[in-house]
Amino acid sequence: MEHDFWHNKWDINQIGFHLNYIHPLLKRNLKLFQLDEALKEQNEQKREEREQDSHRPKIFVPLCGKTLDIGYLLAQGYSVVAIELSEIAVQEVFASLELQPNNQPIISEWVGGKLYQTKNLQVFVGDFFALTQEDLGEIALVYDRAALVALPESMRKDYSSQLEKITQQAPQLLITLDYDQTVAGGPPFAVSSDEVECLYAANYPIQLLEEDDIIEQEPRFKAKGLTSFYQRAYRLK
């Protein structure tokens, strides 16, 4: 989708996709990825260096919006790197963290836009497709709650390919929505289990962790005539 579409959504505060709570699927399923143990198995020497530098496993949150999930991940002791097109959203991420005056983000330039950075949090402002693996560093987990479903079908293959490349096929906690798009259109867009397989099965074993029909929690979509609205969580590892 065009960048102007999302900039306009934030400019007029039309952000019905934002959750004012920490996503329960993140809270229930994060422990399944055993992040500290996974990094230890990959490279014990690098892990020792991280501990000496007080660094923790790094989680990547693509198209993050102003999600409160970032604060939750930081509170669990992880480092977070994220990207978001709207600078308004990024500013609100940092405002929600209620940082001390001596820990306000340092703002610098990167090839795709701006970078807001504190000790354990980096948020790139700009185009996801401009990111590189060098920008992100070593990623222990991708947390995709709102990225894949924000993109139309024509963009999702390019997105998944770019994501795998810049994270070196890091494990993913992926959350999708699925509904009848002939009744209601996106965003957020419907992404079926078959499409998840098509996008990721070549490089990941895919495990369906949870599946729930949440139509009763989505009055906006129910009012459009939908009778079901499935939310699914996957483990790609």
UniProtKB/TrEMBL annotation:
Keyword terms: Cytoplasm, Methyltransferase, S-adenosyl-L-methionine, Transferase
Subcellular location: Cytoplasm
Keyword Cytoplasm: yes
Signal peptide limits: none
Residues the record lists as binding S-adenosyl-L-methionine: 10, 63, 84, 145
SUPFAM superfamilies on file: S-adenosyl-L-methionine-dependent methyltransferases
Superkingdom of the organism of origin: Bacteria
Top-level enzyme category: transferase
Protein name: Thiopurine S-methyltransferase
Protein's organism: Oleispira antarctica RB-8
